[in-house]
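Comment thread on ticket #2218

A.B. wrote:
> Attaching the input chain for the structure job we discussed in standup.
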Amino acid sequence: MVMTIDEEIQLQPATTGDGSIVPEGRYTLHLVRLEKAPPSSFNPEAGPRIKWVFNLYAESVETMARGTLFHFNGEPYEFWRTTSTANSPRAFARQYAEALLGRKMNEQEVPKLASLVNLKMSALISYDADPNDSTRQLLKMTGLKHVPVKAPAPVVAQVSADPSDEDVDRALIVTDLQRKV
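C.D. wrote:
> Ran it. Output below, let me know if you need it in another format.
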């Protein structure tokens, strides 16, 4: 028996709403990984692209407490953007790299992409109407700035309150020598 497409899969019921997943507001974006992405279908000659994968933490979001990790469907949400490998001042890849590094890049500088992973930046996420489709909204990410990553707390050696046997023996020898003097 051959199944029709409607017997195998169907659309979910139509809903009202804007369709946006991430609420508008300012977020800390923690870069969790970078991936090689295929060339753009609009400009395949430009070569491979970079997929930037972030976790989002609320900074100033109306519906979230500050510092809260954004979840979607009960899971930490992986927010991603795809850029070219262009490194001109207006290129998104450069804007992301500079915000993550917390500084402007020097002429001819080529940062190691792996060094950007686990760094953080802050961005304002908002939506604009799609000029080509009134039923859609386009996500905008603006106001990029560096967020320092706190260094891990130094590990302090555990100091025992009880002296070792060698310390006790040394103290007894010193005490005996002091008595004899």
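A.B. wrote:
> Thanks. Noting for the ticket: Residues 156-160 have pLDDT under 50 and may be disordered.
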